[in-house]
Design goal:
single chain; Rossmann fold; 7 helices; globular; PIN-like_dom_sf; PIN_dom; PIN domain-containing protein
């Protein structure tokens, strides 16, 4: 199974502790045991690094290397064309960055894993989506 894990999961795992930190850790440990392909969009990687830098948590060099180990999926013409098709069909309540992430999940045939309430509510119009609860 291919998964696109949103920055909300990684930030809860690596950043300042919040209510999602423990479930994020359990999810990632289970994923590690079970295997599976993880898709890492460049936008998700950028969000993770930016937020963790602002929080002044963790070793950013190690985090960046960890993210590069996945292989980064860049924002490209195919994603932009799919965004255009979706945007012409319906008015979406997602901000641009969330739309990019959902479309990337769709194009790569991945399930989007997120804690983001708006993505959980609106992304099912675009791709498979679920929270990381086990």
């Amino acid at each position: 199974m291919k998964l696109l894990i949103d920055s909300s999961v990684y930030i809860s795992l690596m950043g300042k502790k919040d209510i999602y930190s423990s479930p994020s850790e359990k999810f990632m440990l289970t994923l590690e045991e079970d295997g599976g392909e993880v898709i890492m969009p460049s936008l998700v990687a950028a969000e993770i690094v930016s937020v963790l830098a602002k929080q002044k948590t963790g070793n950013l060099s190690a985090v960046t290397q960890y993210l590069f180990d996945f292989g980064i999926v860049s924002l490209d013409e195919s994603i932009l064309r799919e965004m255009l098709k979706i945007s012409l069909k319906s008015v979406l309540a997602l901000k641009t960055s969330d739309l990019v992430i959902a479309v990337t999940a769709r194009i790569t045939d991945a399930t989007l894993i997120t804690w983001d309430k708006k993505l959980l509510k609106y992304a099912p119009e675009i791709c498979r989506v679920q929270s990381p609860k086990i």
